Amino acid sequence: MTPTLPKRQLLLLALCALTLPALAQKAESIAPDNSILDQRAQNEELLFRSLNYAALSYGSPPYADWGAPKAPYILSADIIPQFAIGGKRLPFALHFTPRFKARIFRDDELAGDSSLPVRTPSYMPGATLYFKNNALNAGQPLFYKFASVSVFHHSNGQDGNSLNPDGRFNQYNGSFSTNFAEVAVYLSHKYNYVPEPAFTCDNNLRGHTDFFARLGFEKHFATDVNLIGRYGQNRLNAQVGWIRNGAYRYWLNTRPNPTISECYLLERHRFVASVSVVADTRLPDLNGRMNKLHRRVNAELMYARRLPVSANVAFQASGGYYGTDPYNAYFEDAYFYARLGLAFGFFTSTTYRDTPTR
């Protein structure tokens, strides 16, 4: 006689047979999708790098900016705030940048100055869209590529005659206005990881070097008619940067047991070299003086040392050559310069991130 199971056990087995597939399907839906996680990690990386490689703001104290015909200044500054939108759930990053340049001149008795004037500051509001291709970055966590499209306005808020009787541009209160768009590509590579730090990090962080390069083409449009022929409307902009990041951790000597936090990254040093070349085929005004090669090139080398007591502020030293002064109506001036001061930017710091930097 074949043994039979009690009805209660048969009912229990049938119930299990019916519920197990549903439970398995639910477990699959709960399990993370690695492709989605990878995409979100790339989205977050795009936002971080777009901020990390963005131009730094700077401020130079009195008599610390030399070289220009009107220098040394009482104060010179280039303020470049980044109102950034992006993160894990957005495949792009968007920066709104109300940029502002100002130089406080010493009083010019010939011009009747008596109040340390800010001569024709530069207003440069704009926006930049950063985007990337996940396929290009797949499987290469240390070698990252992305691109950007920018649109900016540049004017000095003046309404005086643009030209002086001698044909030169009116630097005192001449109207200066232009707009430009730029397309740029970025390449970045993290390398030279410290093999064995002085301490062990539970989150596997290590100090490393970050190299980045940027190449862009800038096209001006809707430019003041008096600038055409003397102010470059097409420019090639190139930049390379070297950033050294160190691994740190908090150590509180509390007895009997010291308190040790997890490791984090902080930027130590940064070098950035920049070159901009006017690519117009011909600039006929001023007897072709602006056509000369040395008037078409701007070049700068900048060093920034992040202050140990701040995540966003660094000591900054820079020097270079302006074939075309970028300070609006002063574009006809050409000179070598040097500058000291403080820089502000989004330096490497994992304390700002939900997860450590790779």
TrEMBL record:
Keywords: Signal. GO terms for molecular function: phospholipase activity. SUPFAM superfamilies: Outer membrane phospholipase A (OMPLA). The keyword Mitochondrion does not apply. Residues 1-24 form the signal peptide. One of its GO terms (biological process) is lipid metabolic process. GO terms for cellular component: membrane. This is Uncharacterized protein. It comes from Hymenobacter edaphi.
